[in-house]
């Protein structure tokens, strides 16, 4: 789980790299996969309690607020929040399925 947290800090808060995306919407895919990994590892580490799911979802929203308001070279995006929350739900459900 620690690795996914560190990865999220780098991806979400490091200065944005300059360049053309590999394909349109690539950043949304990255957000979705990142939060799927965070949610899955949170569930595996802390169990199925809703607090873990809520914490990852809150982190998704808060990360975009921080990007929009505190980081000069980043911007918050409502579609990133949507991708984050979809990834969170997908990762949580995948971890549940794999735990069975």
**Class inferred from helices and paired strands:** mainly alpha
**Measured distance between first and last alpha carbons:** 20 Å
* Low-confidence spans: none
- Determine the number of helices (DSSP H or I, runs of at least 4 residues): 4
Taking the sheet with the most strands, its summary is: none
Domain count, please report it.
1
Mean pLDDT: 93
Keywords:
100 residues, mainly alpha, globular, 4 helices
What does this protein look like?
It is a single chain. Helix 1 packs antiparallel against helix 2, helix 2 (26-46) packs antiparallel against helix 3 (50-70) and helix 3 packs antiparallel against helix 4. It is built from 4 helices and no strands. The chain is 76% helix and 0% strand. The mean pLDDT is 93.
Write the layout of secondary structure elements.
Blueprint: H1 2-13, H2 26-46, H3 50-70, H4 78-99
Helix pairs in contact: 1-2, 2-3, 2-4, 3-4
Task: Tell me briefly what this model is.
This protein is an all-alpha fold and 100 residues long. The protein is built from four helices and no strands. It has helices at residues 2-13, 26-46, 50-70, 78-99.
């Amino acid at each position: 789980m620690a690795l996914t947290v560190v990865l999220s800090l780098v991806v979400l808060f490091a200065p944005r790299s300059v360049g053309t995306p590999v394909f349109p919407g690539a950043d949304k895919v990255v957000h979705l996969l990142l939060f799927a990994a965070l949610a899955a590892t949170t569930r595996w580490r802390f169990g199925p309690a809703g607090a873990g799911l809520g914490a990852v979802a809150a982190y998704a929203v808060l990360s975009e607020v921080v990007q929009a308001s505190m980081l000069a070279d980043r911007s918050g995006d409502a579609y990133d929040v949507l991708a984050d929350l979809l990834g969170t739900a997908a990762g949580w459900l995948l971890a549940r399925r794999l735990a069975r």
